[in-house]
Amino acid sequence: KTEQTFAMIKPDGVSGNYSSAVRKIILDSGFSIIREVLVQLDEDTVKSFYAEHSERSFFPSLVQYMTSGPALAMVLEKVNAIADWRALIGPTDSGMAKVTHPQSIRAMCGLDKQRNCVHGSDSPQSAAREISFFTTKSLTGFIPKHD
Ligand code: CMP
Q1: 3-state secondary structure of 78
Q2: Is the entire prediction scored with pTM above 0.90?
Q3: Strand locations in 58-116, DSSP E?
Q4: In 1-147, at which residue ranges do the beta strands (DSSP E only) sit?
Q5: Pocket residue to mutate for ligand 1, from 47, 58, 65, 82, most atoms within 8 A of Cβ
Q6: pLDDT the model gives residue 145
Q7: Nearest CA-CA partner of 22 in 120, 135, 146, 99
Q8: Alpha carbon distance, N-terminus to C-terminus of the chain
Q9: What's the rounded mean pLDDT across residues 26-35?
Q10: CA 114 to ligand 1 centroid distance, Å
Q11: Alpha carbons 63 and 43: distance in angstroms, whole number
C-alpha cells in the first residue's frame, strides 16, 4: 500500500555534497518527495528525535554529529515506502555496508557506523512519529529550503 516514510540526509551527507546524488536515487527509485526542508538541528531537537537512544554510550557523540551542520529532512511517498527506503540505504554501519551491501546509499556516501549519511524510519510507527516530529512540532532552527 502507499506509505510515507521519513528520510534525512545527515550532516556528513550534506557537507560531503551527496544531496543531489541521493535525491536522484530517491526519484529514480519511484519515490515522490512530498516535503523537503534543509534544517540546522539544535541539541534539544536531536535529543528528542533520537530519544530512544538516550541511554546509549554513543548518544553524546550522536548529538554532536547531528548538530554539526545542515541536514536535509524529507517525507517520501510510494508503495511500500518504509521498507523500500530502508533497503535502499543499507545497514547502519557504513563500513559494513561497503562489504555486504555495496550498492546501498550508505556504502556510497557513509563513513562509519555513526556518520552513515542518511536516515530512514524503521517501522510504520517510527515513520508516523518522525514525519509529525518534523512537520508539526517545534520548527525552531529550521531553514526553509524554498519559500
Ligand atoms: P540512524 O539509523 O539514523 O539511527 C540512530 C543513529 O545513531 C544511527 O543512524 C547512527 O548515526 C548512530 N549510531 C547507531 N549505532 C551507533 C554506534 N554503535 N556507534 C555510533 N553511532 C551509532
Answers
A1: strand
A2: yes
A3: 71-79
A4: 2-9, 32-39, 71-79, 118-120, 142-143
A5: 58
A6: 45
A7: 120
A8: 32
A9: 97
A10: 5
A11: 6
Q: Please state, in angstroms and rounded to a whole number, the distance separating the CA atoms of residues 67 and 82.
A: 25
Residue with cell 516514510: 5
Residues 6+ apart with CB under 8 A from 144: 37, 38
146 belongs to the catalytic site: no
Asked whether the CA dihedral 108, 141, 73, 126 is positive or negative, the reply is positive
pLDDT in tens, 109-137: 999 999 999 999 999 999 999 999 988 65
Q: What is the distance in A from the centroid of ligand 1 to the CA of 60?
A: 11
Q: Is the distance from the beta carbon of residue 114 to the nearest atom of ligand 1 less than 6 Å? A: yes
Please give the pLDDT value at position 146. 46
pLDDT digits (tens, 9 = 90+) for 59-104: 999 999 999 999 999 999 999 999 999 999 999 999 999 999 999 9
